[in-house]
Amino acid sequence: MRVPISWLRTLVPGLTACADEIAARLVRAGLEVEQVHRVGQDVRGVVVAEVLDVQDLTGFAKPIRFCHVSVGQRTHEVVCGATNFAAGDRVAFARPGAVLPGGVDIATRRTYGHTSDGMICSGAELGLTSDAAGILVLPASAPLGGDVVDLLAMRDEVLDIAVTPDRGYQLSVRGVAREAATAFGLALRDPGLEPAAAPSPDGFPVRVEDPELCSRYVARIVYGLDPLARSPLELQRRLTLSGMRSISLAVDVTNAVLLELGQPLHAFDLDALSGAIVVRTARTGERLRTLDGVDRELSEQDLLITDGSGPIALAGVMGGGPTEVTSATTALLIESAHFAPRSVARTARRHRLPSEASRRYERGVDPALAGAAAERAVQLLVELGGATAGPVSDVDGRRPRPALRLPVTAPGRLAGRDYPADVVRRRLQDVGCHVTGAEVLDVVPPPWRPDLAGAADLIEEVVRLEGYDTIPVVLPSAPAGRGLTTQQRLRRTASRSLAAAGLVEVVTPPFVGDEVLASLGGAMTCPRLVNPLSAEESLLRPTLLASLAAAVVRNVSRGITDVALYESGCVFIGSGQSAPSPGVDGPPTAEQRAALDAALPSQPRHVGVAFAGDRASWDAPLSVLVALGRELGLDLDVRAAAADPYHPGRAGELLLDGQRVGLAGELHPRVVAALGLPARTCAGEANLDVLVEAAARRGPPQAVPLSPFPPAAVDVALVVAREVPAAEVEAALRAGAGPLLEGLRLFDVYTGPQVGEGRRSLAYALRLRAPDRTLTDVEVLSTRDAAVAEAARRTGARLRA
Amino acid sequence: MSGPDPLDPATLEQAGTGALAAFAAARSLPELAVTRTEHLGDRSPVALARRAIAGLPGPQKAEAGKRVHALAQSSQAAYEARKVELERQRDERVLAEEAVDVTVLPERPDGARHPLTTISERVADVFVAMGWELAEGPEVEHEWFNFDALNFGGDHPAREMQDTLFVEPAGSGLVLRTHTSPVQVRSMLDRELPVHVVCPGRVYRADALDATHSPVFAQVEGLCVDEGITMAHLRGTLDHLATAVFGEGLRTRIRPNYFPFTEPSAELDLQCFACRGASAGSGAEPCRVCASEGWIEWGGCGMVHPAVLVACGIDPERYSGFAFGMGLERTLMFRHGIESIRDFYEGDSRFTLSLRSEA
Ligand SMILES: [Zn+2]
Fold it and tell me: Residue A183 gets which letter from DSSP?
């Protein structure tokens, strides 16, 4: 909402503070003043001049005039492209050296074969009107050489206010003026209280079928409008500063009333109407060609204005073409109505037709205003357009608003400070409430405040007008807390372990495209967005690898050759279901709650890693994930696995107690190529929720007894068939060695002629120790032999010769 | 026995002088060892003299013994001193030879956690230290939690303030949560009163990624519901958070605003941590961080709307509560001078690495 300060001052006569001060007070009262625009402040050197002669130049693509103008003592020659003036007219003339709005400098220049010693200005060039085609012709009384800025009161400030959805009344100069008057303790001259002509039986026939959707419908007839009458400069200036275009007197007047009072008006061409106005919802199959030329199919929920011919307007949203006011219109029917916010909102949304009117109706228009607003418009048309006021009809289905009950201490109790009873009453009256009662107030909110629906809303008014800055600052005491949950702490541990392993954390958007997902292979189902930002990325990722791959590509493309990334984030698996929304009059029942939760897709938290470039090696993702498990107190087993999107011979699954919790390894060359990754990119992913839950279930780790006796070291080299995984040999050695085995390490892998074709040698260092004695050589050797025997039994291993 | 008398005083004197000179002349520990054998070994003049004492008559034994002992002692002392000196020289030489260029360090892979992770933890820790708990919830959420229970009426324009990403099936009521407030709803439904929870998390809006917008961003919200909770408590909590995150002495300011789920509602401003508000007003040094406003917009807050309490099964006559929320990217952009919100989500490892310090 753009509010010219000059307009504001007309409604708050005592308001003398500067624009910045006004803006600051309004901000304190809760209005979001986004900017104070200054207009006309930088304009210099534009003076009143008289056109002495006009010579039409020929030979150009468009009409060009060469004129002489006088500013009093001096005469200037000037070239001008407009044709709406004649010798003898007084015009706004920018002399060489003048500055126009926006810092446009005017200088003498050579154009169309002549010297142009200045410029004759249009209203648009002066920032006064939206008329850029014709120049601004001033009244004959304008003094030659006089400063146009002073003459037209061009210096102004405009408040740009962002209006929150609950405060529709601020979408009017009247509403903002009320706040300004309260903020400065001044009286408001409320144009909404001006008397209006009473309805009479000869008013235009109006019938409202659904008073729930249209609680008020005032229609005023205006005759004898001069179709050539133009809006005066002051009206055009106000509209322009408020961000609207001047169109015709009738439209300008309805817009001016809309801006000043917040009451949308619609003007119909009276002669185009047939029969009575009926306000009703649309019937199946009805259509309407709206002002924007679109032929619209109507919904049965659209509220319409109709006449004998059918629909003539979408109530509160947009009028129809056939009844539109044209340049030939001399008789009007002015509609000033109140439509239900919800109905207008739905219709505007359904037809994608947000308008100045619908914005206001959606947020609630003052139903008491209809008469005064129509009256104001009629008066302006009489005054400026030579029209005659006709009769009034008023279908008034308003119901009185019930009083809200507010304990006078309630604002203080919620704010945490005291407000004297008289302050509470006065502040409620400031916003327009009717207040009675003492200990408990009966408060009837004003009609322009539909948002005041409960005690909490009244409390806010008192607290905001007294100033949030007067509320004390007190730290509340919470009950003794239990700190983070085990799961929350373990998740932090997991993240730290990956960073400590030299990986860089990334956070990526979860949107992924079908193509990328297909190239990762595997049959993954995941939810799809109804309204994705990009049609190419309409899925919610079921795996972190898609996002990580994109991050790797981005890093590489930026010249980072050694990439090791990780992400901890949600993935989305399966698809959601529909579940009806329970009411909000109380908590959902257990069944409703269960249905809501069951409707959601599965959303586990995963951890993903990716390596590319110098550090990319098939084992890197496996070992960082195994290390992560160890940080959580879990021993993850690795088993070879051929699974998408991995290299079939260079990937493994991570097992926790035999259950797969993750996969990692080198990516399949086909995937690497499809995603544009560097060759040999490696990656891995594990379900962090499962790991964390398992770790939490395991509870605190138990201490191992620290034997004071010396360990015994013994090495074994075993020859096994090449396809036997080392993990199986290791498991067998552990099982065979029994409780004396303290540690085991694979220190050499050898393939070559000494061990034979298709075989390899695995050399392990075993560390043995007993809790209660020093081991004898015999014990050491028998333990070793038992380990080797078990390895031989399980894997066919034999001791290397 | 032939040759000179080993006990002859002149011989002994000469042997002593010879030993001292020889030890002093030894240039290395091996050389010294050779010299030691010569002057203190079994065949040295001292050893010979000791053995000769045995053959002396009793009265002369004592005097000769004294002389031989003095010689042995002085020679031994000279030897020891020289040994210490030569060992010191050797150690020095070895250490000098072992010197390295300490500036040549093997490269260690550089890891780091994302600043959004560390700021989430930091904010959570501030509240956990006050006895609050950390609450979480799903990112694909049902509208009932994201809107209905938060007093967004079905056709309320506020529902359109937040450009929502809807999840299929169309009309199912599933959305990507537009704020972390549904976690507050779940907390009120699932926890015993009083409730004190802090909820950090990722949220989503239908905004294309540019310098100031992102379809995904991180929020942290807090909720406190108990008997007798006031706006004064809200202000106290916000001031505490500001101090904990940005440093001592920074204040917050609240201005009236509108949110469907709070009443009264307020916009939350933070005193500019760069100029501490000093840039506001004419003539002061301009401040880039706050555009010389003295304050920066940080988030929103208010007293929990009674309708929200009712939808969560809490009696608004008995309980009241406050809630607040802020964007974590914005918080970090202020703290670290980050220019574009894009940087958080592009995955450029240089970004994460440059902000790894939790200082
Ligand atoms: Zn600043």
Answer: H
